Amino acid sequence: MISQEQFNKEIELIIANAVREDVGDGDHSSLACIPVSAQGKAKLLVKDNGIIAGVAFAKLVFQYIDKNLKVETLVEDGAEVNYGDIVFYVEGSSQSILKAERLVLNGMQRMSAIATKTKTFVDLLEGTGTKILDTRKTTPGIRALEKWAVKIGGGENHRFALYDMVMLKDNHIDFAGGITKAITKTKAYLKENNLDLKIIVEARNLDEIKEILKADGIYRILIDNFNYADTKTAVALIGDQCLTESSGGINEDTAREYALCGVNYISSGALTHSVYNMDLSLKAV
Description:
It contains 11 helices and 12 strands. The protein has helices at 4-23, 28-33, 55-65, 94-124, 143-152, 170-176, 179-192, 206-212, 228-238, 255-259, 270-273, and strands spanning 39-46, 50-51, 70-73, 80-81, 86-93, 131-133, 166-168, 199-203, 220-224, 243-247, 265-267, 280-284. The protein has a 6-stranded parallel beta sheet with strand order 6-11-10-9-8-7. It has a 4-stranded antiparallel beta sheet with strand order 3-5-1-12, covered by helices on one side. Strands 2-4 form a two-stranded antiparallel sheet. Strand 9 (220-224), helix 9 (228-238) and strand 10 form a beta-alpha-beta unit. Helix 1 (4-23) crosses helix 4 (94-124), helix 3 (55-65) runs antiparallel to helix 4 (94-124) and helix 6 packs across helix 7 (179-192). The mean pLDDT is 97.
């Protein structure tokens, strides 16, 4: 993953771009009927059940919109919430609260859905020693928010993007002329460009596992679309030579069985691409 400093910068860019997109040259609905001097208070109301995420994000949005807005937090990120719970109160300029409302809700509803789904996987894997990972199958432009939500839900982040880790998948391997050539070329490229990046290599069968193991310096082998029996065999072959990761259509029904095969990680794109937003609303009080 990228550094915390770079991650924070990504969040700043998301907020700035979202406000540009939503506010434009002004919130004319509020400007038309609410005096600039008007002060108000609103509550973040939960209308669903799950894991809340995005409280810290909401505070950043409010501060970006208006540094004088004050937030009273009742529920922190990662907590379980139920219908009717109040997460926080925000108080200050009524115009500012309304300007921030939609961005706060859009972000928190999406993040809470992802955190809730992630927590489901974390609970399923409890006691196995296997950790759940996200992927790059995220919504364009808000990847940092979605990966933040995975962490809040108890999961782990995979690489952030194409630049912070090398991942040699089937197409890279085929275009490069095979696994050995792909790995050899990658190591040469990293050395020539003075890059210190971890290398993950995808395997499609047990023969490819054996070929990957002939190379040194591989951080993790991606055991992709294997059945349970072959996954167990692959884990035994790999031993402690490098870390292992299962992937490929793994869901709530199959995750624990793959974990019991002994892999270190399971990655699931479903954490971020197959969720239903948590129902939240910001109501004046």
